[in-house]
Write a structure and sequence with these properties.
The complex is a heterotrimer of chains A (95), B (190) and C (298).
Chain A lengths: L1 E7 L7 E7 L3 H13 L6 E6 L26 H11 L8
Chain B lengths: L2 H20 L9 H29 L3 H6 L10 H4 L5 H23 L4 H28 L3 H10 L11 H11 L12
Helix pairs in contact in B: 1-2, 2-6, 5-6, 5-7
Chain C lengths: L2 H11 L12 H29 L5 H27 L4 H10 L15 H20 L7 H29 L3 H21 L10 H4 L7 H17 L11 E2 L6 E2 L5 H11 L3 H14 L1 H8 L2
Antiparallel strand pairs in C: 1-2
Helix pairs in contact in C: 2-3, 3-6, 5-6, 5-7, 5-9
Classes of the chains: A alpha+beta (95), B mainly alpha (190), C mainly alpha (298).
Amino acid sequence: MIYEVFRQERKGQAFQHAGSVEAADERFAESYAREQYGRRGESVALWVVARDAIRPIEEFVDELNRNYHRVDGYPLKEKLKEARERAGTTAPRDR
Amino acid sequence: MSERAQLLLEIADDELILGWRDSEWTGIAPFLEEDVAFSSIAQNEVGHARALYELAARDLGTTADGLAFDREPSEYRCSELVELRLPEWERTIARHVLYEQADAERLERLKASDDAEVASLAAKIDREEIYHRLHAEMWHERLKDEPRYREALEELRPLVGKRNGHSRELESLWEEMTSVRRSQPAGTAW
Amino acid sequence: MEQREQEFLEYVQSGGQVETTDWVPDEYRARLRKFIEMHGNSELMGVLPEREWILRAPTLQRKLALTAKVQDEVGHAQLIYRVVEDLGKTREECLDDLISGKSKFHNVFHYPTKTWGDVGVIAWLVDAAAIISQKALLKCSYAPYARIMKKICWEESFHILHGRDVILTLMNGTDDQRELVQEALNRWWAPLMQFHGNPIAPEQDPMFIWRIKSQGNDEGRQQFLDGYVPQIWELGLTVPDPELRKDEGTGRWHYTEPDWDELMSVVTGHGPKTEDRLDLRRAARENSAWVRSVLLAA
């Protein structure tokens, strides 16, 4: 069975996928992951997960361009120019 | 030689020779993941030997390498169990299981020693040995119903703790282990 | 070349990478897998020349370092064969082809190791040549391989230091010890010069075209010479090639053209130790077959 190994390099960092080991069961997988990804103290923690337990998601749908919840959905340049002209002010950097 | 030095050499020699035998599997173990894991065990054993030799070396006015390599085969205090060349995986695991059990008991006694240095080193070694024991148990669980493994356990069990003389195998192991070192005068750096 | 392949080619040539589940041209997949498989074979076979010396290491420190180095190489084989398996060829299938001689491994692992001098030269110079090739794989268009190369390169960095330490200790030692190094270097020089492969131009090298490798063979060799000939000469060692010199104008090294026929002969299974080592692999595999079936039987 294939087990995927995720490692954390330092406390506070995200766990990242490091590789995989082939093992007969969880006990062997732990032993092997520990050696392959931790024998030099290069990781502070490991997660060992059976490959079958991982559910990949690779397709994301946005047919109608939902930009209302992203920064690129708010172009404010024109409105700001108009508001400043009305108030008789200039942009902060021009003063 | 002090009692402490004798005791330290007994354990150090066991760990060195067992580590030497276990390192024979590096590159040719039954599969790659196990090869990597078992090699760490071999390295730890040699590392334990080194720490023990360093302690004994101070008592004896020599160096760890001097103790590890420059004695005659008859001066080693290892048990016959660790000297045997066991190119079959079932026999190697059987020895691993038997040795780890005996060693655990020995380490418990040493951790309780009045000698603070010995007790402290024993505690450090014991913490590393936890993983060796887990590994040995893991394999024992898997192989315990295999006839060849059970036979190996029966074959090797009588040798646990047997320390009255050496097997013929120690001499040839020592020849190979010291061949490069003996090619130059004593004290040459490598 | 059909449109989809052309787009893929442009994609990888501009630095794009792919994962296991992405579509790739058949030719790319076939060449990639063969290349990676040969790398795995090389790590696995590379263990054999060195492991004997673990048992003969003359100090505890050297014994530990050499065991750790060889262990790394086994670990690299594990990483690489996992990548090959995810590309559709199992470890057992790879071992079948390796042992039968159908697939290849790098030239340097077909030669004998005769002395402790070889141990130093291999860790210092053979590993250096290998790390140059490996660095050229860090940007491989196939991302899973590029990722394991990062771990491999990181681990190899200690191998070279260990090698240099062994060599420097020998060079500062007795006359006999210095002679061990020179003699080993004399034997290893030709295989080292052949290691990076024949001088095919990058534009004609499929490995470069598909951006599996990011540089051509000659480039690797020049980097090796640039990095390591000065290190060799500064110790008072000689290189057994009277033509070896650097053209200060062009910055390129000149050398006696390596024997490409010898390289071809060796990698196709006719090296001095090829048969012995494949026999050892075959025997080890047969003797432990029962272990693998017990573990699978759960």
